[in-house]
Design a protein that fits this description.
five-stranded parallel beta sheet; 16 helices; 19 strands; about 20% strand; globular
Length: about 500
Amino acid sequence: MSEKKVIIIGAGVAGLSAACYLRMNGYVTELFESHNKPGGLCTSWKRKEYTFDGCIHSIGGLNPKFRTYHYLNELIDLTKLKFHFHESLGVTEDENGKIINMYANPDLLKQELLSIAPEDAKFINSLINAVKYLEHFDLSLKKPLELWTPLDYYLNQFRTAPVLPYLIKWRKSMDNLTRNCKSTKLKQVLNTDFFSRFPAYFFIMSLGSLHVKDAGYPIGGSLKFSRLLEEKYLSLGGIVHYKSRVTEIKTKDNEAVSVTLEDGRVHNADIIISASDGHATIFEMLDGKYVDNKIRSLYDKHPRWPSMILVSLGINRSFTDEPSTIDMRLKKELIIDSKTKLDSIAFTIYNFDSTLAPKGKTCVRALLKTDNYAYWTDLFYNNKKLYKQEKNRIAREVIRILNNHFKGLSKQVEVIDVATPVTFKNYTNNWNGSTQGWNWLPGLIPETISKGLPGLKNFYLIGQWTTPGGGIISGLTSGRDITRIICKKDKKKFETK
């Protein structure tokens, strides 16, 4: 009996992960990627002598005491990477220049928070106790929920019992939990835009991961990381087709049987996995034929991660003694577009990765959220002149804000690169330019979104549109999980070598 052939759409982190594990388990695989390189959103790009990174701040799975470390080592030879371990989530600078450091070390963080909000000592002590406890607990699953038996559910009660009180207490948003705090400054510091899209326990566990060195930044950036996944896949005998956009998934008798490329070529398969955009897959490649009320409600109503404007700067300055992340509160709101005004900007200063810029120079990036994808799309297609003017305006404003903090910086900027929501859509096909799929809504148990579609056989969805909150590790895990599910269905033992 010949091995089954699996086609994977999208060579991002999830697609590469699934392709690797499927090859380890004897499946014939072909990857189809619309771009000319791997990684999807996990990427970097060159502009003159600078390398700008569009993704990773830190990834988990670097501490051997946790399960994800061993999963990551199945795919990547970690000895080929060096990691920088951030000592804090970053610093927050208020509108008056006051700096608050969000230390990863819980004892230092406690001192820092008490220095700005002694009146909220009870809340701060509770927060720090949660960090200290949860940083040692491994919440990753041994196998995907789709394969759990009643015994698994029963035994999991005992495994999670010690942490359940903490998860229950911190299951709401940080905004909700800090409403009774007296200090306005404490509320500002704890309610950063990024973590506002998760339950509070995610913020707590992120601090813990940094402290126990389970999370770090891979020196060389996101594309180097993605290239290692590609290298692993090719070493397993996998086939990848770049510049090969899939436009249609064909079905027969409600079974996925082939994909059609933009140039009209058709490729048959026994199983098809889409690791690309969920909306495009369901409503364009499959023409909306396999949806139910739950899926329609998901795409109509569920909060999504916003689109982004990414301003990347190449600066002739070292920033040696500066923090790597600064969340600056603005005295005057920054107007992004007709629907978006920002009162703070998070800057990443890549002084921790000397490979991205020449000696004595540094890359700096600013992530600016916007939910006004339609505005930027309209400009791009109907008014290119104004589109360029708006990009330049925002870049100038970002440089002006930085110059107020770092005197003389405006004259040291050598390269400017601005990516808009349209850039993200054109590059990765992510719906409305969203960079991390669905928001991870507050609650005790993270949402699970089905990897299958109603009424369609031999087809699966993986990646950030099935895992609210997105992220590198969730993408890698979804590729591993779908392989386990396929192996179970085919009565094959799941292998990782």
